[in-house]
Amino acid sequence: MKKKETPSSKEASGRRIESIMRRPVVTCRPDDSLHTAAGLMWDHDCGALPVVDEDDKVLAMITDRDICMAAYSQGLTLNAMQVRSAMSNELHACHPDDPVIEAERRMGEKQVRRLPVVDLEGRVQGILTLKDLARETARASEPGATQQPREVLGTLREVGEPHREKPHFV
Fold this sequence. Notes:
The chain is α+β, with helices and mostly antiparallel strands. It has helices at 9-12, 34-43, 64-74, 100-110, 130-138, 149-159, and strands at 48-52, 58-63, 114-118, 124-129. Strands 1-2 form a two-stranded antiparallel sheet. Helix 4 (100-110) packs parallel to helix 6 (149-159). It starts with 8 loop residues before the first helix and ends in an 11-residue tail after the last helix.
């Protein structure tokens, strides 16, 4: 009878973010106009951009929704507003060596659909999205897969919870 192989410690703790993150990452700067940020999102078919400083250190994220809400609430053209006026106030990120399951938990807890992946100095290395988690989960039927569909569904449910009690539409 053949002895069953034991997984390495890296495999036992699950796949690492670096194995499924997207790169290269399109970024913008705080002084860019919202028009520039929206154009980058359109050109690269993405809904969010890490906002970085001159050393490529991630400062915040900006989403297509942030841009829309800034245009609505400030009543200015996108060319007249800077990214800094609409970017997130809080940064939630992960590291390439983190387990995917940890990033999944963070996304659900913080209700974010995307996490910038940063090195120890905070420089952008990649981005992890719900789409990346879904792709990884689709591989769950493969031998040695660690992501389970139930875990990703839980993350989707948490991310989709309303942020506040009042309805969005009156």
